[in-house]
Amino acid sequence: MCGIVGYIGQNDTKEVLLNGLEKLEYRGYDSAGIAMLNDNGLNLFKVKGRIAALRGYVNNTIYATMGIGHTRWATHGVPSEENAHPHQSASGRFTLVHNGVIENYQDLKKEHLSDTAFVSETDTEVIVHLIDKLYGKYENTAEAFRQVISLLKGSYAIAMIDSEDQDNLYVAKNKSPLLVGLGEGFNVVASDAMATLKVTDQYLEIYDQEIVIVNRSFVEVQRLDGTVVDRKPYTAKIDASDIEKGTYPHFMLKEIDEQPFVTRKIIKEYQNENNELKLDNDIREAMKAADRIYIIACGTSYHAGLVGKEFIEKLANIAAEVHVASEFSYNMPLLSEKPLFVFISQSGETADSRSVLVKIKEMGYPALTITNVPGSTLSREADYTLNLYAGPEIAVASTKAYTAQIAVLVILAVDTAQAKGLKLDFDPMQELAIVANAMEILTDQKEAMEELVTNYLQAARNAFFIGRSADYHVCMEGALKLKEISYIQAEGFAGGELKHGTIALIEEGTPVIALATQADVNYAIRGNVQEVIARGANAMIISMKGMEQDTDAFVLPHVHELLTPLVSVVPLQLLAYYAALHRGCDIDKPRNLAKSVTVE
Ligand code: F6R
């Protein structure tokens, strides 16, 4: 993970770097640093902690016209000042930041750097020392940089300063995201366009195994063999206000509230003026041709995939399997004859999912990516892309991307059903519009959710979420939300499964949150709730209008039974939010996590 930013130009480098890092903090936030070069030499500032701490530490009197910065999510070595980037070569001449994991760093160290003293535990330090070493051989920075990059195995986005050269930044990329932003008299480098939107909306994509020389007035993209690549810039279509909190105390709350809007946007984007679905014909044909859909994702996106499987099987009549990417990658099941792989990823950069994509492409299978970031790696490398239209999701805990993924999966399944001539007994787009209204009703009832937290989760050490069928999948997501931001140990279970072991954990006062939105299992899940109450649980039921009972803690507005996950997840997101708020947790940046998980 980690975020990197670089700047070369005329303006105040310090502000561009610090602003950029603040926008990249979602990628990691356990330590940070910047290096700036001016006529007096290199100025290096590193802290353990957040960008706010770095801002306080950086000497405000320093003026520079080039620099690099980094916000870290630790992989090799604990969060500390020594392990924070930028890292410097033994001579002090070269300084670099790196996002990714160098898989062969131990080998490189043994082979080339046995006599070098290391100051950090990072894999990154190997790169910068190697550049020093090879500079001794080639006496040319660009050549030494290229030679070292050719030796690296693994993932990297790198930006490097040569202290003897105030005119060029040296940049390289493989598997980790990296863009070059173009300006008048300046250029920038960033892991994500969001970091530098304040200064430019013109960007150049950088592909894997490319090196870029970034000057104030030009940018040269080269392949590893030195051939120059001609690439046109594109305009980043991100609204700068989308990446601000506005009057909200947290991005997570803002993003929960945006769900009705996002659902309506998806309805609009995927319909033409005659209210017909408008999906790319190639996607339609690929779905029709598939004998089995393999959905690959991680975390919250995996949970959306579980819901999506139901749509694909029930509406489009195609068998579907859902797999956790990190498992599928190393333990592939027997595949059908004509599989279609559907990758679900908010960021489009998740390394575990990408590893599967690379493997199945090598095997010659087609792939569709459903993502919030259309230019992302998973989007570029798949055959087809469906956009989530959710707008940037900044809070580490995913909310609006989850519901957007489910809405797009419904549309995909409905489109396939229509293409196959299958009759549906409901109007899906009309039902999605009803869902958007229901979401709005729920986001207007925040006080009720906060009260439920007081009654059920206030002093909880652990919590269980139970449901059956579609509710079970939402319970898994509810539990993930609660644990990741409030640190309450939580599990989502199939209601019928508790009694096969886990019920042993229920004791006096254990919170159990049950979802009851599915008519055919309404009585069964209520029976499971009675079982845990009999063992002392502090249980509540969140049901759906039409199947509610007087004792239910909360009743959701009625929506089509297939689409209930889009609605029942909203109270669970809010429960997690208020539980974390009451505990004083850092809601948007929970401990140990990062938004974009670009390491396997
Ligand atoms: C949890 C969360 C994560 C992500 C997972 C996959 O709130 O956000 O579980 O869903 O890391 O990320 P993407 O969807 O970017 O592939």
UniProtKB/TrEMBL annotation:
<dbReference type="InterPro" id="IPR005855">
    <property type="entry name" value="GFAT"/>
</dbReference>
<dbReference type="GO" id="GO:0097367">
    <property type="term" value="F:carbohydrate derivative binding"/>
</dbReference>
<dbReference type="Pfam" id="PF13522">
    <property type="entry name" value="GATase_6"/>
</dbReference>
<keyword id="KW-0963">Cytoplasm</keyword>
<dbReference type="InterPro" id="IPR046348">
    <property type="entry name" value="SIS_dom_sf"/>
</dbReference>
<dbReference type="InterPro" id="IPR047084">
    <property type="entry name" value="GFAT_N"/>
</dbReference>
<dbReference type="InterPro" id="IPR035466">
    <property type="entry name" value="GlmS/AgaS_SIS"/>
</dbReference>
<dbReference type="GO" id="GO:0004360">
    <property type="term" value="F:glutamine-fructose-6-phosphate transaminase (isomerizing) activity"/>
</dbReference>
<comment type="subunit">
    <text>Homodimer.</text>
</comment>
<keyword id="KW-0032">Aminotransferase</keyword>
<protein>
    <recommendedName>
        <fullName>Glutamine--fructose-6-phosphate aminotransferase [isomerizing]</fullName>
        <ecNumber>2.6.1.16</ecNumber>
    </recommendedName>
</protein>
<feature type="active site" description="For Fru-6P isomerization activity">
    <location>
        <position position="595"/>
    </location>
</feature>
<dbReference type="GO" id="GO:0006002">
    <property type="term" value="P:fructose 6-phosphate metabolic process"/>
</dbReference>
<comment type="function">
    <text>Catalyzes the first step in hexosamine metabolism, converting fructose-6P into glucosamine-6P using glutamine as a nitrogen source.</text>
</comment>
<feature type="domain" description="SIS">
    <location>
        <begin position="452"/>
        <end position="590"/>
    </location>
</feature>
<dbReference type="GO" id="GO:0005975">
    <property type="term" value="P:carbohydrate metabolic process"/>
</dbReference>
<feature type="active site" description="Nucleophile; for GATase activity">
    <location>
        <position position="2"/>
    </location>
</feature>
<dbReference type="InterPro" id="IPR035490">
    <property type="entry name" value="GlmS/FrlB_SIS"/>
</dbReference>
<dbReference type="GO" id="GO:0006487">
    <property type="term" value="P:protein N-linked glycosylation"/>
</dbReference>
<feature type="domain" description="SIS">
    <location>
        <begin position="283"/>
        <end position="422"/>
    </location>
</feature>
<keyword id="KW-0808">Transferase</keyword>
<dbReference type="Pfam" id="PF01380">
    <property type="entry name" value="SIS"/>
</dbReference>
<dbReference type="InterPro" id="IPR001347">
    <property type="entry name" value="SIS_dom"/>
</dbReference>
<dbReference type="GO" id="GO:0005829">
    <property type="term" value="C:cytosol"/>
</dbReference>
<dbReference type="InterPro" id="IPR029055">
    <property type="entry name" value="Ntn_hydrolases_N"/>
</dbReference>
<keyword id="KW-0315">Glutamine amidotransferase</keyword>
<dbReference type="InterPro" id="IPR017932">
    <property type="entry name" value="GATase_2_dom"/>
</dbReference>
<feature type="domain" description="Glutamine amidotransferase type-2">
    <location>
        <begin position="2"/>
        <end position="217"/>
    </location>
</feature>
<dbReference type="GO" id="GO:0006047">
    <property type="term" value="P:UDP-N-acetylglucosamine metabolic process"/>
</dbReference>
<keyword id="KW-0677">Repeat</keyword>
